[in-house]
Please model this.
Amino acid sequence: MKTKKLVITILMIIIIMGSLSAATPSVFDVGVLNYYKIQSLADTDFASYTPGLRLEAHIVPWFGLGLDALIETPFVDNGSFDILATTDITFRAPIGFFEPYIALGPAYRIAITSGAVALTKDVAYSARAGFDFNITSIFTIGAEAKLVVDDLPGVIAGTAGTIDWLDSTLVGLTLKAKF
Model:
């Protein structure tokens, strides 16, 4: 029994010291996003991969502003490139090696076809939650989920109709460079 308590105490000390010795929180992040819709994973439709880029600036260690640009399913030939641009506010807990976060904000859909650019009038809303592991003082790897809802007022009022939550939720990995 004493040995078990000693092992648990040593493990707790190692975890706490490891998180305290991790890199300080970043001020600016540049990230590469690698997403799939949950429905695409369930259907094993790997051509519907959604890559993206993220720029994020942190005003204070726990609060920041982000900008994402995702190219929705670039390997599915539909004659256009559909871009999902999101801006959000980010709340994170920079507790060392492990950094959980949530972000909320508006999203805009942009379609580029044969040189023409079309921006949809309706504003969608996005929410994301995830966590990062600070691998080095510069690089992090993380996992996150992002929900994009096209009619948030309708969802709140109950008039949005049927929403395919599996098709509206993206999951994936992130790679970030911290500055």
